[in-house]
Input
Amino acid sequence: MKQEEKREAVEDVPVKVGETIGFYLDDVFTRGVAMAVYKEGGNWMVKVCPEEEGTTDVFRDIPMDSVVKEELLSSGELALALVADTDGGHWTQRKRERSASPEDGENKPPSLDVNSLVQIDLGRGNCVTGTIRWIGYMLKTQEKMAGIELDEEKGVCDGEWQGVRYFTCPAKRGLFVTLEQCQPDMRFQCNSSAFPEPAEFCGLDTAEVPSNLPPLRDDLAVRVLQGPMRGIQGHCNSCYMDAALFSLFSCTSVLDSMLFKPSLPPDRHIQRILRDKIVNPLRQKGFVAASNVMHLRHQLTEKGQCSSFATSEKDPEEFLNLIMHRILGIDPLLKLQSGKLKEQECFCYQIFMDKQEDLVVPNVQQLVEHSFLSSDLKLVEIPSCFIIQMPRFGKEYKMFNKIIPSLELDITDLLAGYHG
Output
């Protein structure tokens, strides 16, 4: 009975784990992700990962009455703050004055705010995209301006202009334009006329789909996965997990056994989240909200005893090892041997190779063969599933501009004992 009462009390808290909130940090208005909500000495607290620190393990503990949920941040000069009535244990909302700030909503298009994804037409067919990081008035300007962090290095600064720091971004990614020049990035718009069927995609959550669905094939895969608001929504360094989940489950059933394999009671809810909140919605609607993946990341954080699983970018192999081996108890999929060394077991294979001048536009078959040959590797046995990670690329360097997918992979020459 006490456990039920405690659960109900937590559900009544208006800020939940994984939600984006705003708060003041050292007199600077900051956004971040709620990582935990807890009670300390009668006061509710929120453990927050600030956006500027999203790739580290730095967290801030903020009182609940000092934060405001993301959907309430665009209310102009008045911000709605959440306040706890400690006597009755209930939550109310009150309005808090906010001084003139970069996020003042006066004369601002209603659909644009700080962190909005926008596109800007610079004329002569030159269009750039990026994210609004600052809104306000600059020195010697009468129009409301927007500071943009561009997706590509087509800017003129790093967020500082004429000696004043307005926001921070990588060099050559910063650009200041009038707010009127900014238009919502059409790649991420939910247009009911062009895309009528999944209206719920405009929300922040994707409903569970308890029915078991087969992977998408052929024309059905194109129809379900093609278009705006499709795939897995990214958030807070989630690209490594989003790409892995999409590749493993959207169009293939080779790993579906892990979705139904009997698991221990403490881990059963993780299996359910993976199956009913990620894989099935992806196959039914072609879309998974970031909040669903964040829910899984928080559960993996607890199991992996790693505080940064929900905030930092990780190696896909670390994610696969945790969920396949430690949670679902699946045996390693690959057995590899180098020369006469002892064989090694793993869940996936990372392609490592030096630059090959003769491989201008390689296919996956060529990359795998080159990698195995250069590392003197062999497959001890035919794997039931061969998960391959492509060569790593950095922001400043790409080994190959394109890699052609190989729809079939011939591993005959990669098998130990084969001397073709």
User: Anything to note?
Assistant: The first strand starts at residue 20 and ends at 25. The radius of gyration is 25 Å. DSSP finds eight helices and 21 strands in the chain.
